[in-house]
Amino acid sequence: MNAQTEFVSVAGPAGVLEVAIDRPPGDARGAAVIAHPHPLHGGTLTNKVVQTLARACVQSSWTAVRFNFRGVGQSEGAYDEGRGELDDLLAVTTALAPTGPLCLAGFSFGAFVTSHAAARLLETRDIDRLVLVGTAASRFHVAPIAAELHDRTLIVHGEQDDTVPLSSVMDWARPQSLPVLVVPGGGHFFHGQLPLLRDLALRHLRA
Question: What is the pTM of this model?
Answer without folding.
Answer: 0.97
